[in-house]
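Postdoc handover notes: sequence design on the structure in folder B. Input tokens:
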């Protein structure tokens, strides 16, 4: 049975833990529904969640809810959310936007002049709306026409595309709690006699079409749906919620969605058939009455078949909730008076537990308890010591490159990579303690490095990098599945043609015995059965003797590399610095040279052949000419910029393409299925190459860019 702190893959989303932040109505957006710095701070504080689901976000002007609700349909709103997603990603988090339409529970005071709330049928909700005048009763809505339905479905799809443009990792549709999608599912709000009402198949039609419209815009594996069968919230009534929601779950089960988010009914006979009919990832928001969901309740849901659990109120008051769960720390109580609107009070002023952010002396104690394996923590190696120089040699020329360092540790590797001329460096480590130490050092150095906490097995998409430095990371895999997942995460963070370098060991070499002890080397285990391989970092010249274990043979690495998408790799034995020879003696190094144990594993993400790139470019040009492909504004803008960079078509450089990817960010990778982005990514490694093939490829790609721009 998984624990709350185990990683999870949900469609295209990689979650480092199963503690999900539930959507909560906080109403802190500024004028016209634009998120501001306060919202960015709030969500970034909670980036340690396995996944953040935002508060409900309006998909259009006619969908707007209470004062302070954010939207996702204007350029200003998209830009505001970009600040939020950037802050969350810089803190190492994952975040999806909950797309919402209030339907009949909106109010004319909140909508454009002359617009009345929309609903499946003209049935007034027995509830109040939060307006600039305060809480006022809702009004009778206007029953949606077929044209209204088509427009609303298009708004959901457009808002999903805007979410990707704003940097979200995915979207969730609000199909629960009496909002528009739920209004179509409920008996008392849907009195229609056309194809969107009547029996269960008619009632689920709008929900299914909304989900599929959004999936068509951003990919099904980035889409979740939230439902609350039989909840009664916002004056909804369902006489047979198990039938209707069960059919909805079964209908969407094969669509490849990232997850289904179930707000539990208090009636288990409602929840059970739905769980049985949904075959994908299930995120559960437990029914706990008036009490917040606690870790014990969440663990029970995992044992009952849930894949992840959503926490609401305790995430509002405990920004470090996963760490509190891990350490068994007490949970701060939320302040209900600050839930729906206000300022920083009750919003961003909840501090992490002191034990979640240990002091430097506590960090020293933590690592001292771990033992000799981390003995070099207290005495950081010199910034440009022999080991670092050897690693840099294998990384190659760093000038102008985008680099991801997956073993930032104290931050000295990452800073050295930046100092060597890299254009952008992101450091990532498994330990929040080490990342915090690196951040503090970086604040002193001011080199402009971004640090993340990441999970080695569920490595998030941190960007499109030319180079990934993994250093010791791969040695921590305990199964082939974990090793493959690590390598796949590295692969997915590389641009085509990008390279990764990892220092790794394998278990054929077993140097146990007194001959090794004579040189003062420490072993982790005294028995061969427990310790299947060792790595002595002195082999490449560090100041301390640290040994780490590994269990992977050449054959295992080759198998996992192929499964992760790498076509080829090389092993290179590191050099032995003269100072290390002097320190340990010739006999030691004679033994080492006869039985080399560590090596630099160097892999390259495959690139498309030049002919295939030209064929893809010509196909895009034909689709453009025939009207089968309608480029987005962003695609045209980046194409125009690249064409200008190519100086009228004379040449196009790989650096210009990399700059365009950085400018366009995530939306560029997904617009129109990412065809243009994929073409340019495949073309980039060829553009700086010499020869007729590269030159012809540049001409064909540049011609396409000219037609677009």
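Designed sequence:
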């Amino acid at each position: 049975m998984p624990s709350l702190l185990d990683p999870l893959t949900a469609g295209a989303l990689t979650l480092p833990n199963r503690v999900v932040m539930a959507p909560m109505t906080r109403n802190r957006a500024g004028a016209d529904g634009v998120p501001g710095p306060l919202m960015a701070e709030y969500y970034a504080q909670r980036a340690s969640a396995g996944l953040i689901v935002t508060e409900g976000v309006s998909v259009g002007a006619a969908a707007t809810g209470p004062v302070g609700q954010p939207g996702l349909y204007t350029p200003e709103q998209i830009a505001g959310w970009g600040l939020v997603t950037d802050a969350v990603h810089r803190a190492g988090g994952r975040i999806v936007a909950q797309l919402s339409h209030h339907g009949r529970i909106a109010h004319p005071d909140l909508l454009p002049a002359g617009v009345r709330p929309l609903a499946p049928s003209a049935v007034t909700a027995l509830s109040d709306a939060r307006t600039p005048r305060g809480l006022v009763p809702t009004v009778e809505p206007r029953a949606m026409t077929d044209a209204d339905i088509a427009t609303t479905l298009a708004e959901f799809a457009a808002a999903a595309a805007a979410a990707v443009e704003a940097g979200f990792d995915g979207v969730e549709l609000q199909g629960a709690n009496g909002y528009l999608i739920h209004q179509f599912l409920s008996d008392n709000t849907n009195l229609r006699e056309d194809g969107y009402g009547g029996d269960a198949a008619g009632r689920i039609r709008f929900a299914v079409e909304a989900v599929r419209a959004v999936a068509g815009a951003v990919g099904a594996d980035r889409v979740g749906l939230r439902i609350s069968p039989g909840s009664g919230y916002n004056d909804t009534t369902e006489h047979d919620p198990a039938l209707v929601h069960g059919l909805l779950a079964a209908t969407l089960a094969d669509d490849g969605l990232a997850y289904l988010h179930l707000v539990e009914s208090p009636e288990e006979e409602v929840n059970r058939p739905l769980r049985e009919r949904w075959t994908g990832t299930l995120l559960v928001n437990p029914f706990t009455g008036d009490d917040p969901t606690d870790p014990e309740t969440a663990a029970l849901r995992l044992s009952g078949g849930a894949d992840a659990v959503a926490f609401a109120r305790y995430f509002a008051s405990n920004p470090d909730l996963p760490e509190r769960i891990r350490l068994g720390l007490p949970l701060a109580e939320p302040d209900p008076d600050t839930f729906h609107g206000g300022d920083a009070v009750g919003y961003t002023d909840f501090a992490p537990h002191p034990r979640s952010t240990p002091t430097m002396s506590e960090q020293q104690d933590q690592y001292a308890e771990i033992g000799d394996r981390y003995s070099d923590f207290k005495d950081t190696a010199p910034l440009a010591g022999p080991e670092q120089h050897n690693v840099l040699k294998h990384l190659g020329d760093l000038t102008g490159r985008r680099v991801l360092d997956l073993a930032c540790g104290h931050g000295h590797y990452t800073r050295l990579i930046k100092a060597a001329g890299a254009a952008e460096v992101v450091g990532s480590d498994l330990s929040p303690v080490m990342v915090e130490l690196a951040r503090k050092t970086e604040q002193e150095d001011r080199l402009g490095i971004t640090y993340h906490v990441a999970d080695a097995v569920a490595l998030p998409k941190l960007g499109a990098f030319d180079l990934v430095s993994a250093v010791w990371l791969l040695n921590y895999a305990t199964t082939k599945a974990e090793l493959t997942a690590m390598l796949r995460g590295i692969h997915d963070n590389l641009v085509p043609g990008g390279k990764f370098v990892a220092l790794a060991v394998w278990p054929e070499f077993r140097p146990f015995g007194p001959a090794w002890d004579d040189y003062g080397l420490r072993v982790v285990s005294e028995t061969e059965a427990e310790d299947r391989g060792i790595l002595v970092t002195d082999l490449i010249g560090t100041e301390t003797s640290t040994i780490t274990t590994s269990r992977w043979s050449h054959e295992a690495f080759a198998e996992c590399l192929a499964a992760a998408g790498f076509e080829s790799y090389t092993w290179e034995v590191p050099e032995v610095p003269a100072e290390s020879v002097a320190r340990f003696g010739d006999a030691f190094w004679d033994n080492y040279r006869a039985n080399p144990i560590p090596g630099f594993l160097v892999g390259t993400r495959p690139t498309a052949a030049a002919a295939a790139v030209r064929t893809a470019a010509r196909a895009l040009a034909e689709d453009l000419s025939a009207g089968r492909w309608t480029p987005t504004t962003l695609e045209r803008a980046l194409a125009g910029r690249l064409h200008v960079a190519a100086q009228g078509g004379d040449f196009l450089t790989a650096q210009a393409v990399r700059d365009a990817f950085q400018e366009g960010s995530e939306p560029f990778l997904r617009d129109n299925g990412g065809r243009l982005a994929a073409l340019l990514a495949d073309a980039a490694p060829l553009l700086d190459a010499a020869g007729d093939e590269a030159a012809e490829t540049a001409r064909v790609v540049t011609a396409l860019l000219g037609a677009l721009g």
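Context for whoever picks this up: The chain has a mean pLDDT of 80. Don't rerun without checking with the PI first.
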